[in-house]
Specification:
heterodimer, A: mainly alpha, 2 strands, 2% strand, B: alpha+beta
């Protein structure tokens, strides 16, 4: 008795699943899919496997911050005191309380990647919880995933709207928005900018991970994939813009707050040093007063000069924090200055969680779909057990990222596990679909499913524009890697309270090479194996 | 609130004529914009602090001397000891007295350690409130229990459903053929999917008595 493949209850679930996966920490699709059987090939599975190993650590961090948001005051609002209560903790005093909370309390980061340190139990239990939650969502396959994605797709939008309203009403948000919308013309001329933009949209769309293919394989065959492709792409891009507006208004608030703090500190310093009347120096006349003081008391002013910081709003706006730091440090810093910070903190980290879980669902589905489809495994083990084993293995490996040096390994995976290999995978997919399978046959397939042939725009995109773009991206990436020589990373120096650049040790470089090679080699290896097996079969059949 | 800065400073020598001067021994600098009444209150508070500290009721308001007031509202002050021939009380004693009663002094002026600054008397920071069980652990346990309960429920219901399916198929074992024919595919699409798309079975072709060819 043949069991029919499980399906999404309605097309909306599929769209939501894609949006949820996409609007994760990023993704949609530009190309239609071909293979319903293997979910994109073994290379995609390998990449998805690497991804799911490290990605859930972000959810663990989100959980940690979420659980810590239920106290007053927020733990990252103030520096802790040092041992004899005479002042603040040394490390915290050198940097800000939010950075201290991230680097010391959350990560407990070691000074370099060599010093491994022990597993941080708080992060480890949060990671286990994150995996349990993922397991809960995929337990029943599309049955449960279909319901979960309603939440993971819509909740972030609700929170984003709340934040938009709150963000735009904050003092100084306008500065951030102006900063966002003023193009820096010299940056536009830099090709690196365009490469980063292209890369971002590429990964934002989550192409090549096999997740979209996996999701789509649960669709009915007459699903209007053309319409869905357009919808999901548009939604993803507009969400990115929407989220940037929110982020930049929060950013502007934080920058303005810090700038005004800096100015008042300088004013206080000058007023105290020269015993001026309260209110003699204001933000407006600061510069003229500085000149006046320099002329009247040159000696004292010269003594004071090292302590006077040059406050600049531009500099505050330019302090862009990279990657995961942005989500945690920047936002927690902005949140602690708002009224009722606990509410905003809880909302924000719940949103991060839903986004992260949505993306994780996509990744895990990409791994599990081929496993459950394979006859060998599905006859021996029920679906729940397969999902459980995959989650368990990933969780154990993920514990590496909760050690003291874990964040450095995390960054390695984040930077190298997916980039080159994905480009290659998608390039191969496009070429396979358009040239090897044949654009004509593909057109006919689509005609069967949709009722009409795709128009010339799609065909030109698939056959020419996309491969060319991907190849150029690929070339740029390679030249960039070659140019920078030895790879370096940012290590946190506790004594200085800031990041320092260090070189990767050789074994880290080996891991990087392995990561990139493992996924890219799968394609030629797979082709080779298939070729060899076909040859063997032919030989066997001719012998008979 | 207006900012007050007080500077505590102790020097070695005592000048009889100029007991209160900037940088004089045991002289403490204070900053505050105020009038004579505030000045009086300040003197009273310092005298109070000295009385509390040394437990002698000898310090009078007249013993506290203020001088060199600037626009910034900062000034110096010394506490004289009338019992000992117009000398100033050692700076360390004054410091200790003020440190002991800092809170009262701050409250009298409705200011804080930051806004009423006695330079050289560093603030003792209050340690944050530490609860016995960290809050995050409580929330974590709640969420963990919910997730585990959810997983358990789903697994159990899945097992139960599978057992029911097995029982059902065991009961209808002899009708397997019929089941088999009904799940044929039409044009590569399983029949039950077509059913969902409002296909219906043509009664002519599935008449029971014509299922098997007659012997």
């Amino acid at each position: 008795m043949e069991k029919s493949r499980p399906l999404w209850d309605n097309p909306l679930q599929f769209v939501f699943a894609c949006i949820s996966y996409a609007v994760g920490l990023g993704n949609v699709w530009r190309f239609p899919y071909l293979c319903q059987t293997y979910g994109g090939g073994i290379a995609s599975v390998v990449v998805s496997f690497f991804l799911s190993m490290y990605y859930n650590v972000i959810n663990a961090w989100a959980f940690w911050y979420l659980f810590n948001s239920f106290q007053d005051p927020l733990p990252w609002a103030n520096c802790p005191l040092n041992s004899n209560h005479t002042g603040y903790d040394e490390e915290c005093a050198k940097t800000s309380s939010t950075q201290y909370f991230w680097y010391r309390k959350t990560l407990n980061i070691s000074p370099s990647i060599d010093e491994n340190g022990s597993i941080q139990w708080e992060q480890a239990v949060c990671l286990i919880l994150a995996w349990l939650l993922v397991y809960l969502c995929i337990l029943r396959g599309t049955e449960s995933t279909g319901k979960v994605v309603y939440i993971t797709a819509s909740l972030p939008y609700v929170v984003l709207i709340i934040y938009l309203i709150r963000g735009l009403t904050l003092h100084g948000s306008v500065n951030g928005l102006i900063y966002m919308f003023t193009p820096k013309l010299e940056q536009l001329a830099n090709p690196k900018t365009w490469i980063n933009a292209a890369t971002q949209i590429f990964f934002s769309l989550g192409l090549g991970f096999g997740s979209l293919i996996a999701f789509a394989s649960y669709n009915k065959p007459n699903n209007n994939c053309e319409r869905h492709a357009i919808i999901v792409s548009l939604i993803n891009s507009s969400t990115s813009i929407f989220a940037s507006i929110v982020t930049f208004s929060i950013y502007g608030f934080k920058a303005t707050f810090n700038y005004e703090n800096c100015i008042s500190k300088v004013i206080l310093l000058l007023t105290n040093a020269f015993d001026l009347e309260e209110g003699a120096i204001t933000a407006d006349n600061l510069n003229s007063m500085k000149d006046y003081l320099t002329s009247v008391y040159p000696n004292e002013y010269a003594e004071l000069l090292p302590q006077i910081k040059n406050c600049s709003l531009e500099a505050e706006l330019d302090t862009a924090v990279q990657g995961t730091g942005l989500a945690f440090i920047l936002y927690s810093e902005a949140i602690k200055n708002m009224e009722v910070p606990q509410l905003y903190s809880v909302l924000y980290f719940i949103m991060l969680l839903t986004l992260g879980i949505g993306s994780m669902l996509g990744n895990i589905t990409a791994i599990i779909t081929p496993l459950t489809d394979s006859k060998f495994l599905s006859t021996h083990l029920p679906k729940e057990a397969i999902s459980g084993i995959v989650c368990f293995i990933n969780c154990i490996i993920g514990l590496v990222f909760t050690t003291k040096a874990g964040n450095y390994w995390f960054n390695i995976f984040n930077d190298y596990a997916a980039t080159l290999s994905l480009l290659l995978i998608v390039l191969v997919e496009t070429i396979a679909v358009c040239y090897i399978y044949g654009l004509r046959r593909f057109e006919d397939d689509l005609h069967l499913m949709l009722g009409h042939k795709p128009n010339w725009y799609w065909k030109i995109m698939w056959a020419f524009a996309s491969p060319v773009l991907i190849i150029s991206l690929f070339i740029f990436y390679l030249t960039d890697y070659i140019h920078t020589g030895t790879l370096q990373y940012q290590a946190w120096d506790a004594t200085q309270g800031q990041q320092v650049t260090k070189d990767y040790p050789s074994y880290a470089l080996a891991v990087i090479g392995l990561l990139v090679a493992a996924s890219t080699m799968c394609i030629p290896l797979g082709a080779l194996i298939t070729f060899v097996m076909k040859r063997l079969k032919r030989n066997v059949s001719t012998l008979e | 609130m207006l900012e007050i800065l007080l500077l505590a400073f102790s020097l070695a020598t005592i000048a009889h004529a100029e007991l209160c001067s900037p940088g004089a021994q045991n002289a403490i600098k204070v900053r505050y914009t105020w009038d004579a009444s505030e000045e009086y209150l300040f003197k009273a508070m310092v005298a109070f602090a000295m009385r509390r500290y040394s437990n002698k009721a000898t310090t009078q308001i007249s013993n506290v001397l203020l001088c060199c007031m600037t626009e910034r509202v900062s000034f110096w002050f010394v506490v004289t000891d009338s019992s000992k021939n117009v000398t100033t009380v050692p700076g360390s004693e004054v410091e200790a007295a003020i440190r002991m009663n800092r809170n009262r002094i701050n409250s009298a002026f409705l200011l804080t350690d930051h806004t009423l600054e006695f330079l050289k008397i560093s603030t003792t920071l209050s340690p944050p409130v530490e609860s016995t069980v960290p809050v995050w652990l409580v929330v974590f346990s709640v969420v963990l229990c919910l997730v585990i309960a959810g997983i358990f429920l789903l697994i159990v219901s899945g097992i139960r459903q599978r057992r029911k399916n097995n029982n059902d198929s065991a009961e209808y074992g002899d009708l397997e053929d019929q089941c088999g024919t009904q799940v044929t595919t039409e044009n590569g699409i399983p029949c039950d999917i077509l059913d969902l798309k409002s296909g219906h079975i043509n009664g002519v072709y599935t008449a029971d008595d014509e299922r098997f060819t007659p012997l």
